[in-house]
Amino acid sequence: xxxxxxxxxxxxxxxxxxxxxxxxxxxxxxxxxxxxxxxxxxxxxxxxxxxxxxxxxxxxxxxxxxxxxxxxxxxxxxxxxxxxxxxxxxxxxxxxxxxxxxxxxxxxxxxxxxxxxxxxxxxxxxxxxxxxxxxxxxxxxxxxxxxxxxxxxxxxxxxxxxxxxxxxxxxxxxxxxxxxxxxxxxxxxxxxxxxxxxxxxxxxxxxxxxxxxxxxxxxxxxxxxxxxxxxxxxxxxxxxxxxxxxxxxxxxxxxxxxxxxxxxxxxxxxxxxxxxxxxxxxxxxxxxx
Length: 289
What we know:
The chain is α/β, with parallel strands linked by helices.
């Protein structure tokens, strides 16, 4: 089975942002520019996450999703602040193919069952943000890693799968944005406990990290952000002025993070088969360009 490579675009207001451990968000640019480039480079899917939606109790991505869906023709998953069937319907009508649920699912697990019956399990992705505890267990968090739940992440993954989730998006908050590599144990524990695909997220800094989480972490797909975003900015810094829109320090300095080896999708997709990891070639994945 081909491994899917999925760029993750965290959105705050109108901008693409990136942080470390889901904090310290820095403005990187307009998400549509990044999404179009990743589509043309051969992304298998895209993930849009409204990272402040839970603070305001709503998802604010509808217009961005509409604009993106008009130009790309690969599956698009949208998450953040989706709390009702009406919320899900709104983003699907805007052009999303799947939705990612976290806070609402934790607050009412039966919402997973209801949503999967209404829209189909293949449409419902449950997002699990986890932090490793001193005793070696993993606890699930909500609100972009800000709110503890008291739930064991592995047991919650099993329950979410039983309730009808079609996929699980598993993010290690400890590793997210660090470039230190994925939390292989977290991913493996969940992947070996559920019968549905697991998307690994958080920590990629090299192509080898991608290979490791597939081979050792048993992931079915890999979500990437920093590696791709920083490579995009290096080659296409853009001309927009973001000086009044948040933390723009990275855009000002174009600084390179030592742990993260910037890479474009064609480079990653060319390197994986050479390491025994099957994936769709970049030229084959990028259709309708």
